[in-house]
Amino acid sequence: MSLFEKYPVSITNSLSGKKELFTPLKSPFVGLYSCGPTVYNEVHLGNLRTFTAFDVVYRYLTHIGYKVRYVRNITDAGHLTNDAGEGVDRIEESAKLEQLEPMEIVQKYTFSFHDVCRIFNILPPSIEPTATGHIVEQIEMVKKILANGYAYEVNGSVYFDVRKFMEKYKYGELSGRNIDELLEGTRELDRQDEKRHSVDFAIWKAVSPNHIQRWPSPWGEGIPGWHLECSAMGTKYLGEQFDIHGGGMDLKFPHHECEIAQSIGAYGKTPVRYWMHANMLTVNGEKMSKSKGNSFLPRELFTGSHPLLSKAYSPMAVRFFMLQSHYSSTLDFSNEALQAAEKGYKKLSNALSTIKKLEHPGGSGNQDEELLKLIDEAYRNMSDDFNTAKTLAVLFEMSARINDMKSGNVKLTDLDADTFNKFKSAYITFMEDVLGLQEEGSQNLDVLDGVIRVMIDLRKKARTDRNYALSDKIRDDLKALGVQLMDGKDGEISYTIE
Ligand code: AMP
Ligand code: ZN
């Protein structure tokens, strides 16, 4: 029996508003899509909360035996400042400000996003498609929607015809908006008058002659509408209908609502079976966002350079902070909350170091039902809509048992070896694999390893250049620091640290 059969997962589906039993279309395969970043500047901690939430969903589903294909896109074209598809192109605007090519901006912030993910131990997805890499698929989708009569072309732009769509299908179901309310929404001037109705949205947008990012299409040169990329890439890699689609709560409308309409407009099928939305990271109750000026950047945390922080915090303490609340609740960010999180994380991390070193001496003691019950509870909590808050509470109980084992309050010889091994393995698995919480300091060791390897490469280069003075200096200086380099048989160099 697989773990996902033993601990069936339930998910609060934003579409129904109810907690539902999760049954994948083609178990054990699971298709998971989550909206990735728009790479026009550095991600802030608010963005990271959402990415962390779906990282845990991916980790847990994989851990319990599902074969997950996780698609998280990179938005590198088409995202305008107004989510309704109007306003300034975010990437073009950054390019102007930083005096770089739009694709230089895209590259720079994609790399920076990947660095941040590595630091926070957010796993890479199975596929990370980009909007610019899928222009053809997006154009094909626009053609389908046009052919089905749910879009119209004006001056080289193509708009989704929401009114027409509503003659047959529902629009606004996910976000609970009603169309009349939407129609009353403020109308923008500019190109808005091209649209038949203010609720219509661009699926292809003609651009002005000075717009650098542009692609040819049957309607002239332009850019894809922002909502379209997720529909096109989700369909391409996960099918016309797939299991789970996630993103931040702020994307429900219009982004995800438009995605649903586009997919139905093109393929006549509702694209997603379970919609999941992560709630907002707030500062003093207000959504953290770049535009509000209340955002915190990862590097401001590690250096403690933000005026509202009293000190620097480690990435794992911040990750722990994010996981302390359920993904569907808002989470307020503050120096005090981080301090508390740091303490909590250290407790769990210490227990992790301890249990890794503890070995059962063998033999059979008592089967401690309590220990097995804790493992069971951890699974039940995670399977209950990925409740990381309750799972952490169980891990705290487990850490107390670990401390008893360490202090000798509980003797390992009194415990059954099999029970102990199950308990040890569960604690390590939940911490590292499921929640992605690494041992304190282990990240620094990774950095140290990287730096030493750089030095080894430099020494190799010095030797090839016959600069023996430099190669000896590198070896001797490293030795003085306690790092001993050793020449292997095949020219490979290894090292030991005293
Ligand atoms: P963006 O790069 O603006 O497209 O946002 C990337 C992801 O971060 C989206 O899923 C957003 O919903 C999410 N996001 C933005 N701000 C916050 C916040 N304050 N708290 C949680 N998630 C957020
Ligand atoms: Zn999206």
Please describe what this structure looks like.
This protein is an alpha/beta fold. The chain has 3 domains: 23-278, Rossmann fold, CATH 3.40.50; 282-434, no CATH class; 444-497, no CATH class. The protein is built from 17 helices and 17 strands. It has helices at residues 3-6, 45-63, 90-98, 102-119, 135-147, 162-166, 179-184, 226-238, 252-267, 298-303, 315-323, 335-357, 369-383, 388-407, 417-434, 442-464, 468-480, and strands at residues 10-13, 18-21, 29-34, 67-72, 80-82, 86-89, 151-154, 157-160, 201-206, 222-224, 242-248, 272-278, 281-283, 286-287, 331-332, 483-487, 493-497. A 4-stranded parallel beta sheet has the order 4-3-11-12, with helices on both faces. It has a 4-stranded antiparallel beta sheet with strand order 7-8-9-10. Strand 13 (281-283) and strand 14 (286-287) form a beta hairpin. Helix 3 crosses helix 4 (102-119) and helix 12 (335-357) packs antiparallel against helix 15 (417-434). The chain binds adenosine monophosphate and zinc ion (ZN). Adenosine monophosphate binds next to helix 2 and strand 11.
Layout of helices and strands, plus pairs?
Blueprint: H1 3-6, E1 10-13, E2 18-21, E3 29-34, H2 45-63, E4 67-72, E5 80-82, E6 86-89, H3 90-98, H4 102-119, H5 135-147, E7 151-154, E8 157-160, H6 162-166, H7 179-184, E9 201-206, E10 222-224, H8 226-238, E11 242-248, H9 252-267, E12 272-278, E13 281-283, E14 286-287, H10 298-303, H11 315-323, E15 331-332, H12 335-357, H13 369-383, H14 388-407, H15 417-434, H16 442-464, H17 468-480, E16 483-487, E17 493-497
Parallel strand pairs: 3-4, 3-11, 11-12, 13-15
Antiparallel strand pairs: 1-2, 5-6, 7-8, 8-9, 9-10, 13-14, 16-17
Helix pairs in contact: 3-4, 5-8, 5-9, 8-9, 11-12, 12-14, 12-15, 13-14, 13-15, 16-17
Adenosine monophosphate is lined by residues 35, 37-38, 46-47, 49-50, 247-248, 250-251, 278, 280-281, 287-289.
